[in-house]
Amino acid sequence: MKTRSTFLIALTVLMSFSIVVPPDVSAQAGQKAGQISRAIPDVGIARGAQQLPAPVKALVDWGDVVRTGDGGRARVALDDGSVLNIGSSSTLTVTQHNAAAQQTQIELSYGRVRSQVVKQSKPNSKFEIHTSVGVAGVVGTDFLLDS
Question: What pTM does this model have?
């Protein structure tokens, strides 16, 4: 009877895992975008399959979905100094936020958000909020979106 090499089995398992999980996806998961600075009850964060409460000082990472219920509101302070005020009955996803490169992309699925954006001064900087009907991009201003 032949015995298999443990090295060969470990290598096969490692190769299988690297195919299933691409390296760039794991690098983006868990990157901090900001934190909840104010929350009126009925605010939650969906992080992957987890549903988390969103108390004040809860971290908001890339890919997190911030949801507010009826009467709930949240304020998210982003790492670059920008502020997102999320209205009641809203769903917002932080797709990307890189404070050093001034690259921010938010997706507003439903509801309202008021954005107070710091001045975008670096080359190729952008702050965009995507909705089902369009994209709003700014270089440093205060604006309100209702989707």
Answer: 0.74
